[in-house]
Design goal:
The structure is a single chain. By secondary structure, the chain is mainly α. The protein is 65% helix and 0% strand. The chain has four helices and no strands. The longest helix is centred in the N-terminal third of the chain and has 48 residues. The chain is elongated, with a radius of gyration of 24 Å.
Length: 144
């Protein structure tokens, strides 16, 4: 085998490896972006469902949507989100007769920090100063 032939074969193999690696990494980035988009849509539905369980705006339908949204998170959320979600749901449960607004806010912050970490919000949040507040609409519910 001549040097020119060997050089051609090495060049061909190198070119094929570069093309394969480029294809693989592009597909991986596309899958990661699609997965992140899917997770974000479920997280948005969850955050929207919180409006249905805020004291003063809570409704039976709101509680059903909240339950469905939180259950859907169990499909894909990492363990840190699920642990924070379970703690928040326990505090926020209708059956909890010793609810604490301070504990609710603390657990909500932990849950939202875990979600924001999972979806890669940048820059990173400061857990010592992160204090999310849920707002009720303030609209009176009509008696039906």
């Amino acid at each position: 085998m001549t040097a020119a032939l060997a050089t051609s074969i090495v060049g061909l193999i190198g070119g094929l490896l570069v093309a394969a690696f480029t294809y693989w990494s592009t597909k991986r980035r596309e899958r990661d972006a699609e997965w992140r988009k899917e997770k974000l849509s479920y997280y948005k539905v969850f955050v929207e469902s919180l409006s249905g369980v805020i004291e003063g705006d809570d409704t039976p339908e709101g509680h059903k949507l909240y339950a469905k949204a939180t259950n859907n998170l169990l499909l894909f959320a990492p363990q840190s989100v699920i642990e924070a979600l379970n703690a928040f749901r326990s505090e926020n449960a209708i059956s909890n007769t010793s609810k604490s607004p301070a504990r609710h806010d603390e657990l909500l912050a932990q849950l939202l920090l875990a979600i924001r970490s999972d979806i890669g919000v940048q820059p990173m949040d400061n857990s010592a100063t992160f204090k999310p507040i849920l707002w009720a609409s303030g609209a009176r519910q009509s008696a039906t």
